[in-house]
Amino acid sequence: xxxxxxxxxxxxxxxxxxxxxxxxxxxxxxxxxxxxxxxxxxxxxxxxxxxxxxxxxxxxxxxxxxxxxxxxxxxxxxxxxxxxxxxxxxxxxxxxxxxxxxxxxxxxxxxxxxxxxxxxxxxxxxxxxxxxxxxxxxxx
Length: 140
Hints:
Number of helices: 4
CATH architecture of the largest domain: 2-Layer Sandwich
């Protein structure tokens, strides 16, 4: 079995249907003795250019390990589903299990919005310790 990275874009009006679609695609891969190494729902994002007069779409990323027959069946389901605007399948050398950069950036942004900022007092304590070290090195 080979490793593939699959990204598909769903019509923004069908965003509520995405979890059900993902479950169908997961069951399709797993029924063919395949494995899903990573599954990320990136949510609704802006497109680089309009597709069918749409400027936003719902993005989903899957890293799977499956046979070519199951992959072809998965691609056929993408083609015949009107809600899927675009899909991309890339052959990978091995399984990708780490979080993607987009999800890492999204998590960082969520932390910043939740107020995980450092306090002004913390900055002052760090700044004075650095200044003391700088004075000591200058004297030496």
